[in-house]
Write a structure and sequence with these properties.
The protein has 15 helices and 8 strands. The protein is α/β, with parallel strands linked by helices and 396 residues long.
Protein backbone atom coordinates (compact mmCIF):
# COMPACT_ATOMS: atom_id res chain seq x y z
CA UNK A 1 0.00 0.00 0.00
CA UNK A 2 2.91 2.38 0.62
CA UNK A 3 4.39 1.93 -2.85
CA UNK A 4 3.72 4.83 -5.20
CA UNK A 5 1.96 4.42 -8.53
CA UNK A 6 4.39 5.23 -11.36
CA UNK A 7 3.18 8.42 -13.05
CA UNK A 8 6.32 9.25 -15.05
CA UNK A 9 4.55 8.69 -18.39
CA UNK A 10 1.50 10.77 -17.43
CA UNK A 11 1.12 13.98 -19.45
CA UNK A 12 1.07 17.02 -17.12
CA UNK A 13 0.33 20.62 -18.13
CA UNK A 14 3.49 22.53 -18.97
CA UNK A 15 4.95 24.11 -15.83
CA UNK A 16 2.75 22.12 -13.45
CA UNK A 17 4.62 20.37 -10.62
CA UNK A 18 4.61 16.59 -10.91
CA UNK A 19 4.49 14.81 -7.57
CA UNK A 20 4.01 11.08 -7.09
CA UNK A 21 1.44 10.79 -4.35
CA UNK A 22 -1.02 8.00 -5.00
CA UNK A 23 -0.25 4.59 -3.53
CA UNK A 24 -1.57 1.35 -4.94
CA UNK A 25 -5.11 1.25 -3.49
CA UNK A 26 -6.83 -1.35 -1.35
CA UNK A 27 -10.22 -0.16 -2.54
CA UNK A 28 -11.94 1.86 -5.21
CA UNK A 29 -15.28 3.62 -5.07
CA UNK A 30 -17.90 4.83 -7.50
CA UNK A 31 -20.46 7.52 -6.70
CA UNK A 32 -23.80 7.16 -8.49
CA UNK A 33 -26.27 10.04 -8.46
CA UNK A 34 -29.54 8.38 -9.48
CA UNK A 35 -31.38 11.70 -9.84
CA UNK A 36 -31.18 15.26 -8.50
CA UNK A 37 -34.77 15.87 -7.34
CA UNK A 38 -34.67 16.67 -3.61
CA UNK A 39 -36.93 17.70 -0.74
CA UNK A 40 -34.35 20.18 0.63
CA UNK A 41 -32.55 23.19 -0.79
CA UNK A 42 -29.23 23.22 1.04
CA UNK A 43 -27.36 26.50 0.66
CA UNK A 44 -24.05 24.78 -0.13
CA UNK A 45 -25.47 22.24 -2.61
CA UNK A 46 -24.17 22.26 -6.18
CA UNK A 47 -27.35 20.72 -7.63
CA UNK A 48 -30.23 22.76 -9.03
CA UNK A 49 -32.75 19.93 -8.40
CA UNK A 50 -34.48 20.79 -11.66
CA UNK A 51 -34.37 17.30 -13.19
CA UNK A 52 -37.33 15.10 -12.36
CA UNK A 53 -37.25 11.37 -11.66
CA UNK A 54 -36.23 9.30 -14.68
CA UNK A 55 -36.66 5.57 -14.27
CA UNK A 56 -35.19 4.80 -17.69
CA UNK A 57 -31.98 6.68 -16.86
CA UNK A 58 -31.56 4.80 -13.59
CA UNK A 59 -31.81 1.51 -15.47
CA UNK A 60 -28.86 2.57 -17.66
CA UNK A 61 -26.56 3.31 -14.72
CA UNK A 62 -25.28 -0.27 -14.12
CA UNK A 63 -23.65 -0.35 -17.57
CA UNK A 64 -21.86 2.95 -16.91
CA UNK A 65 -20.82 1.84 -13.42
CA UNK A 66 -19.36 -1.49 -14.56
CA UNK A 67 -17.43 0.13 -17.41
CA UNK A 68 -15.89 2.73 -15.08
CA UNK A 69 -15.05 0.29 -12.31
CA UNK A 70 -13.49 -2.19 -14.71
CA UNK A 71 -10.91 0.40 -15.83
CA UNK A 72 -9.60 0.96 -12.31
CA UNK A 73 -9.87 -2.63 -11.08
CA UNK A 74 -8.08 -4.11 -14.07
CA UNK A 75 -5.37 -1.46 -13.78
CA UNK A 76 -4.86 -1.91 -10.02
CA UNK A 77 -4.74 -5.59 -8.94
CA UNK A 78 -4.17 -4.52 -5.32
CA UNK A 79 -7.84 -3.50 -5.02
CA UNK A 80 -9.63 -5.76 -2.54
CA UNK A 81 -12.89 -3.87 -2.01
CA UNK A 82 -15.33 -2.07 -4.28
CA UNK A 83 -17.55 0.58 -2.69
CA UNK A 84 -20.67 1.68 -4.56
CA UNK A 85 -22.31 4.80 -3.13
CA UNK A 86 -25.88 5.67 -4.13
CA UNK A 87 -27.05 9.28 -3.84
CA UNK A 88 -29.72 11.72 -5.05
CA UNK A 89 -31.28 14.31 -4.73
CA UNK A 90 -33.09 12.45 -2.03
CA UNK A 91 -33.67 8.82 -2.95
CA UNK A 92 -35.99 8.08 -0.02
CA UNK A 93 -38.18 11.18 0.20
CA UNK A 94 -41.83 10.48 0.98
CA UNK A 95 -42.82 11.80 -2.47
CA UNK A 96 -40.73 9.15 -4.29
CA UNK A 97 -43.11 6.39 -5.51
CA UNK A 98 -42.69 2.88 -4.13
CA UNK A 99 -42.00 1.67 -7.68
CA UNK A 100 -38.64 3.46 -7.61
CA UNK A 101 -37.49 1.31 -4.72
CA UNK A 102 -37.93 -1.70 -7.01
CA UNK A 103 -35.75 0.02 -9.61
CA UNK A 104 -33.11 0.77 -6.95
CA UNK A 105 -33.11 -2.91 -6.05
CA UNK A 106 -32.73 -3.96 -9.70
CA UNK A 107 -29.76 -1.59 -10.05
CA UNK A 108 -28.06 -2.99 -6.96
CA UNK A 109 -28.69 -6.61 -7.92
CA UNK A 110 -27.42 -6.08 -11.48
CA UNK A 111 -24.22 -4.35 -10.39
CA UNK A 112 -23.56 -6.92 -7.67
CA UNK A 113 -24.22 -9.87 -10.02
CA UNK A 114 -21.89 -8.60 -12.71
CA UNK A 115 -19.10 -7.63 -10.33
CA UNK A 116 -19.28 -11.01 -8.56
CA UNK A 117 -18.94 -12.75 -11.92
CA UNK A 118 -16.01 -10.58 -13.00
CA UNK A 119 -14.22 -10.26 -9.65
CA UNK A 120 -15.27 -13.09 -7.30
CA UNK A 121 -12.35 -12.31 -4.97
CA UNK A 122 -13.38 -8.66 -4.35
CA UNK A 123 -15.55 -7.50 -1.49
CA UNK A 124 -18.51 -5.40 -2.68
CA UNK A 125 -20.01 -2.80 -0.33
CA UNK A 126 -23.07 -0.69 -1.14
CA UNK A 127 -23.68 2.51 0.82
CA UNK A 128 -26.69 4.82 0.59
CA UNK A 129 -26.53 8.49 1.53
CA UNK A 130 -29.69 10.28 2.58
CA UNK A 131 -30.80 13.50 4.29
CA UNK A 132 -33.16 11.65 6.65
CA UNK A 133 -36.02 14.10 6.14
CA UNK A 134 -38.99 11.78 5.60
CA UNK A 135 -41.49 9.79 7.63
CA UNK A 136 -41.50 6.50 5.67
CA UNK A 137 -38.37 5.14 7.33
CA UNK A 138 -39.56 1.57 7.00
CA UNK A 139 -39.14 1.73 3.20
CA UNK A 140 -35.44 2.46 3.57
CA UNK A 141 -34.96 -0.26 6.20
CA UNK A 142 -36.69 -2.84 3.99
CA UNK A 143 -34.57 -1.79 1.01
CA UNK A 144 -31.36 -2.23 3.04
CA UNK A 145 -32.45 -5.61 4.40
CA UNK A 146 -33.70 -6.99 1.08
CA UNK A 147 -30.56 -5.99 -0.82
CA UNK A 148 -27.79 -7.06 1.56
CA UNK A 149 -26.51 -3.58 2.41
CA UNK A 150 -25.41 -4.77 5.85
CA UNK A 151 -27.89 -2.07 6.89
CA UNK A 152 -25.23 0.60 6.37
CA UNK A 153 -26.54 4.11 5.71
CA UNK A 154 -25.07 7.59 5.86
CA UNK A 155 -27.36 10.43 6.96
CA UNK A 156 -26.18 13.91 5.96
CA UNK A 157 -26.43 16.28 8.92
CA UNK A 158 -25.38 19.91 8.58
CA UNK A 159 -26.27 22.40 11.27
CA UNK A 160 -26.21 25.54 9.15
CA UNK A 161 -27.50 26.00 5.62
CA UNK A 162 -29.34 22.67 5.29
CA UNK A 163 -32.69 22.87 7.08
CA UNK A 164 -35.48 25.46 6.64
CA UNK A 165 -36.41 25.21 10.33
CA UNK A 166 -35.73 23.31 13.58
CA UNK A 167 -38.64 20.92 13.01
CA UNK A 168 -37.09 19.61 9.79
CA UNK A 169 -33.69 19.27 11.46
CA UNK A 170 -35.27 17.29 14.30
CA UNK A 171 -36.88 14.98 11.73
CA UNK A 172 -33.40 14.11 10.45
CA UNK A 173 -32.14 13.47 13.99
CA UNK A 174 -35.13 11.24 14.70
CA UNK A 175 -34.48 9.28 11.50
CA UNK A 176 -30.96 8.49 12.71
CA UNK A 177 -32.38 7.21 15.99
CA UNK A 178 -35.12 5.20 14.31
CA UNK A 179 -32.68 3.57 11.89
CA UNK A 180 -30.29 2.78 14.74
CA UNK A 181 -33.14 1.27 16.77
CA UNK A 182 -33.93 -0.96 13.79
CA UNK A 183 -30.40 -2.33 13.84
CA UNK A 184 -28.83 -0.15 11.14
CA UNK A 185 -25.24 1.04 11.16
CA UNK A 186 -25.89 4.77 10.78
CA UNK A 187 -23.13 7.25 9.98
CA UNK A 188 -23.86 10.95 10.43
CA UNK A 189 -22.09 12.85 7.66
CA UNK A 190 -21.22 16.55 7.78
CA UNK A 191 -19.54 19.02 5.46
CA UNK A 192 -16.65 20.92 7.02
CA UNK A 193 -17.95 24.41 6.25
CA UNK A 194 -16.91 27.40 8.34
CA UNK A 195 -20.49 27.89 9.52
CA UNK A 196 -20.81 24.23 10.49
CA UNK A 197 -17.56 24.30 12.46
CA UNK A 198 -18.52 27.52 14.24
CA UNK A 199 -21.88 26.03 15.16
CA UNK A 200 -20.29 22.87 16.53
CA UNK A 201 -17.86 24.85 18.69
CA UNK A 202 -20.81 26.80 20.12
CA UNK A 203 -23.10 23.76 20.51
CA UNK A 204 -20.74 20.94 21.46
CA UNK A 205 -23.32 18.81 23.22
CA UNK A 206 -25.67 18.85 20.23
CA UNK A 207 -22.78 17.58 18.14
CA UNK A 208 -21.97 14.82 20.66
CA UNK A 209 -25.68 13.92 20.84
CA UNK A 210 -25.55 12.55 17.31
CA UNK A 211 -23.77 9.56 18.86
CA UNK A 212 -24.69 9.80 22.55
CA UNK A 213 -28.43 10.45 22.13
CA UNK A 214 -29.37 9.47 18.58
CA UNK A 215 -27.02 6.47 18.37
CA UNK A 216 -25.07 7.18 15.19
CA UNK A 217 -22.10 4.80 15.14
CA UNK A 218 -19.73 7.30 13.54
CA UNK A 219 -19.57 10.95 12.48
CA UNK A 220 -17.87 11.43 9.14
CA UNK A 221 -16.71 14.71 7.60
CA UNK A 222 -16.33 15.72 3.99
CA UNK A 223 -13.88 18.54 3.48
CA UNK A 224 -15.68 21.50 1.93
CA UNK A 225 -15.42 21.87 -1.84
CA UNK A 226 -15.84 25.62 -2.50
CA UNK A 227 -19.14 26.53 -4.08
CA UNK A 228 -21.35 29.57 -4.60
CA UNK A 229 -21.42 30.43 -0.89
CA UNK A 230 -17.66 30.05 -0.44
CA UNK A 231 -17.30 33.46 1.19
CA UNK A 232 -19.55 32.25 4.04
CA UNK A 233 -18.47 28.63 4.12
CA UNK A 234 -14.75 28.47 3.27
CA UNK A 235 -13.03 27.36 6.52
CA UNK A 236 -9.54 28.45 7.52
CA UNK A 237 -6.84 26.11 8.74
CA UNK A 238 -7.41 27.51 12.21
CA UNK A 239 -11.18 26.81 12.03
CA UNK A 240 -10.41 23.18 11.28
CA UNK A 241 -7.66 22.92 13.88
CA UNK A 242 -9.92 24.26 16.66
CA UNK A 243 -12.44 21.56 15.78
CA UNK A 244 -9.81 18.80 15.68
CA UNK A 245 -8.39 19.99 19.01
CA UNK A 246 -11.87 19.82 20.55
CA UNK A 247 -12.40 16.26 19.26
CA UNK A 248 -9.00 15.10 20.49
CA UNK A 249 -9.40 16.77 23.89
CA UNK A 250 -12.83 15.20 24.31
CA UNK A 251 -11.58 11.83 22.97
CA UNK A 252 -14.25 11.75 20.27
CA UNK A 253 -12.67 8.87 18.41
CA UNK A 254 -15.94 8.14 16.62
CA UNK A 255 -15.30 11.22 14.46
CA UNK A 256 -13.94 9.69 11.26
CA UNK A 257 -11.00 12.02 10.63
CA UNK A 258 -9.86 11.67 14.26
CA UNK A 259 -10.07 7.89 13.95
CA UNK A 260 -7.87 7.95 10.84
CA UNK A 261 -5.37 10.34 12.43
CA UNK A 262 -5.01 8.10 15.47
CA UNK A 263 -4.60 4.99 13.32
CA UNK A 264 -2.02 6.67 11.10
CA UNK A 265 -0.07 8.06 14.05
CA UNK A 266 0.05 4.73 15.89
CA UNK A 267 0.83 2.54 12.91
CA UNK A 268 3.00 5.06 11.03
CA UNK A 269 1.44 3.63 7.90
CA UNK A 270 -0.62 5.07 5.10
CA UNK A 271 -3.80 3.02 4.83
CA UNK A 272 -6.48 5.46 3.75
CA UNK A 273 -7.14 8.91 2.42
CA UNK A 274 -10.27 10.93 3.07
CA UNK A 275 -10.82 11.22 -0.68
CA UNK A 276 -8.75 9.14 -3.10
CA UNK A 277 -10.31 10.81 -6.12
CA UNK A 278 -8.07 9.01 -8.62
CA UNK A 279 -10.10 5.90 -7.80
CA UNK A 280 -13.53 7.49 -7.30
CA UNK A 281 -15.37 8.23 -10.55
CA UNK A 282 -18.72 10.00 -10.23
CA UNK A 283 -21.79 9.53 -12.43
CA UNK A 284 -24.36 12.34 -12.42
CA UNK A 285 -26.92 13.35 -15.04
CA UNK A 286 -25.26 11.00 -17.50
CA UNK A 287 -21.88 12.71 -17.14
CA UNK A 288 -18.84 10.85 -15.85
CA UNK A 289 -15.73 12.36 -14.28
CA UNK A 290 -13.08 12.00 -11.60
CA UNK A 291 -12.85 15.77 -11.22
CA UNK A 292 -14.71 16.72 -8.03
CA UNK A 293 -14.71 20.38 -9.05
CA UNK A 294 -17.08 19.43 -11.88
CA UNK A 295 -19.40 17.21 -9.86
CA UNK A 296 -19.53 19.16 -6.59
CA UNK A 297 -19.05 22.81 -7.50
CA UNK A 298 -20.67 25.32 -9.82
CA UNK A 299 -17.64 27.63 -9.73
CA UNK A 300 -15.37 28.22 -12.72
CA UNK A 301 -12.66 25.54 -12.83
CA UNK A 302 -10.05 28.26 -13.31
CA UNK A 303 -10.63 29.13 -9.63
CA UNK A 304 -9.12 25.72 -8.81
CA UNK A 305 -6.66 24.99 -11.63
CA UNK A 306 -5.74 28.43 -12.92
CA UNK A 307 -4.11 28.33 -16.35
CA UNK A 308 -3.83 24.53 -16.35
CA UNK A 309 -7.55 23.95 -17.06
CA UNK A 310 -7.26 23.51 -20.82
CA UNK A 311 -4.70 20.71 -20.47
CA UNK A 312 -6.64 18.63 -17.96
CA UNK A 313 -8.26 15.32 -18.86
CA UNK A 314 -9.63 12.27 -17.06
CA UNK A 315 -6.20 10.63 -17.07
CA UNK A 316 -4.29 13.43 -15.34
CA UNK A 317 -6.80 15.57 -13.43
CA UNK A 318 -6.54 13.70 -10.11
CA UNK A 319 -2.74 13.70 -10.20
CA UNK A 320 -2.55 17.38 -11.18
CA UNK A 321 -4.92 18.22 -8.34
CA UNK A 322 -2.84 16.27 -5.83
CA UNK A 323 0.44 17.78 -7.09
CA UNK A 324 -0.90 21.32 -6.83
CA UNK A 325 -2.27 20.65 -3.34
CA UNK A 326 0.89 18.99 -2.04
CA UNK A 327 2.99 21.84 -3.39
CA UNK A 328 0.73 24.54 -1.95
CA UNK A 329 0.56 22.89 1.47
CA UNK A 330 4.24 21.95 1.57
CA UNK A 331 3.42 18.34 2.38
CA UNK A 332 6.67 16.92 1.05
CA UNK A 333 8.61 18.62 3.85
CA UNK A 334 6.27 17.28 6.55
CA UNK A 335 7.48 14.45 8.79
CA UNK A 336 4.02 12.84 8.55
CA UNK A 337 3.79 12.88 4.76
CA UNK A 338 4.29 9.16 4.26
CA UNK A 339 1.25 8.15 6.31
CA UNK A 340 -1.02 11.20 6.76
CA UNK A 341 -4.56 10.75 5.34
CA UNK A 342 -4.30 14.39 4.17
CA UNK A 343 -7.01 16.82 3.15
CA UNK A 344 -9.19 17.49 0.12
CA UNK A 345 -7.09 18.89 -2.70
CA UNK A 346 -10.09 20.76 -4.14
CA UNK A 347 -10.23 22.85 -0.96
CA UNK A 348 -6.49 23.44 -0.86
CA UNK A 349 -6.01 24.49 -4.46
CA UNK A 350 -8.99 26.88 -4.47
CA UNK A 351 -7.57 30.30 -5.28
CA UNK A 352 -9.08 31.96 -2.18
CA UNK A 353 -7.88 29.34 0.32
CA UNK A 354 -4.81 30.54 2.20
CA UNK A 355 -2.75 27.62 3.48
CA UNK A 356 -1.46 28.28 7.01
CA UNK A 357 -0.56 25.87 9.81
CA UNK A 358 -1.84 22.46 8.71
CA UNK A 359 -4.60 21.27 11.10
CA UNK A 360 -3.61 17.64 10.56
CA UNK A 361 0.04 18.29 11.42
CA UNK A 362 -1.14 20.21 14.49
CA UNK A 363 -3.26 17.20 15.42
CA UNK A 364 -0.26 14.87 15.23
CA UNK A 365 1.69 17.28 17.47
CA UNK A 366 -1.21 17.28 19.94
CA UNK A 367 -1.34 13.46 20.02
CA UNK A 368 2.43 13.30 20.53
CA UNK A 369 2.19 15.78 23.42
CA UNK A 370 -0.62 13.76 25.06
CA UNK A 371 0.53 10.10 24.98
CA UNK A 372 -2.40 9.09 27.19
CA UNK A 373 -4.58 9.63 24.12
CA UNK A 374 -3.07 6.57 22.48
CA UNK A 375 -3.97 4.37 25.44
CA UNK A 376 -7.48 5.81 25.58
CA UNK A 377 -7.89 5.29 21.86
CA UNK A 378 -6.73 1.67 21.98
CA UNK A 379 -9.15 0.98 24.81
CA UNK A 380 -12.01 2.60 22.88
CA UNK A 381 -11.15 0.71 19.70
CA UNK A 382 -11.13 -2.61 21.48
CA UNK A 383 -14.57 -1.93 22.91
CA UNK A 384 -16.33 -0.20 20.03
CA UNK A 385 -14.43 -0.16 16.77
CA UNK A 386 -15.90 -2.06 13.83
CA UNK A 387 -14.11 -3.36 10.75
CA UNK A 388 -16.32 -1.23 8.51
CA UNK A 389 -14.86 2.01 9.87
CA UNK A 390 -11.56 1.43 8.14
CA UNK A 391 -12.01 -0.85 5.19
CA UNK A 392 -8.86 -2.65 6.23
CA UNK A 393 -8.98 -5.85 8.24
CA UNK A 394 -5.87 -5.32 10.33
CA UNK A 395 -6.90 -1.85 11.46
CA UNK A 396 -9.20 -3.07 14.21
Amino acid sequence: MNEFIDIKDLEFPKGCPKVEFYRHPDYCEIVLYLFTKCNLRCEFCFQEHSADLDMNYIKKIPDMAIELLKKDIDKEPTIKQIDIRLLGGELFADAVPDSYFDVYAELVQEIRRRLNEMYPDKKIVFIVTSNGVYSKVERLVKFLEDNDFKKLVSISIDFIGRYPNEKVKQRAYDTIKELADRGCDVRAGLVMTKRNLNYIMAHKQEFRDLVEKYNATQITFNFYIPNNNWEKDLPTDNDMWQFFEFCLSEKLFYVGIIFYLMESFIRQKFFTKTCECKFIPTVTDGCVTKDCTQTASTLDRHMFYGNYVDELNEENVSDVKASLGITKRGCLACEHYSYCPQMCWCLLIFEHFKAEACPLASSYAFIKAHPELVDEYKKWKKERCSYEMTGEEDAC
